[in-house]
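JOB MANIFEST
job_type = single_chain_structure
chain_count = 1
residues = 266
[input]
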Amino acid sequence: MNEDIARGLREAADAHQPDRARILARVERGAAGPPVRHRTPSFARSWPRAALASLATAGILATGGLAVAGIVRMPAPSDTVAPTPATPTATPSPTVTPSPAVTPSLTPSTAPSTVAPAPVPTPASPRPTSSASSRPANGSLWSEGSVDSHSTVYWSQHNLVLKTTQPLTSLTVELRITQTGEVHDTGNWRTLPSEDFTVTVQESGGVLVYRWVLKPGHTVPVGQHEFAGQFNHATGVRSAANDSYRVDAQSAGGPASVWGGFGPAR
């Protein structure tokens, strides 16, 4: 009789498919609810009923054991570990090596010129220089001739600056203007007193001559003095290349003479 019960229980256990959800729900209700009080079975029950109850209890225990074993073997939903997604392996970017900068070579036909332009000479202010036709300084005298900056294509003025470091007891100044066409006197002046000089203007041998002669008994003081001659001429830019001046003087240091030409207008 016991072997038949045991065999029946084993067959029932093997054929049993536990309802996991219902078992979990029962376990949760049993854990949450109050303990169930079971009445002690009465000894008055008959043996057949006691045997059936024992058989049912053994089946329930066997079934419950199998169910509990299944629950233990099956992980709970909360214990389920989600698979870790595989991290994609990053493909390294190809390293780009920059190409070396190419410096264009310049051929002789395309290379820019590096030759600096020749400097344009700046004309210097005309200064008296000694030569065969010019002696601007001698003894106590220094001189410089120039074309006045107010000269035009119809009219011109020649200036002479004379400096002396000693008083002059004798002085003769001449401005010689070459006849280049329609050259005619229009006036003259000097910075020294007019009554100290005898002034003449005359044309001779194709040259218009302005002459100042210091009168006897008069003296030219130390310092800078100026003489000028004015004249008309043919229309156009007139060249003063052949015009000249000469100065002869006497001082306590002895005679002195200077001469020269007329530089560009200033």
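[summary]
The chain is about 20% helix and 30% strand.
The CA atoms of residues 146 and 263 lie 4 Å apart.
exit_status = 0
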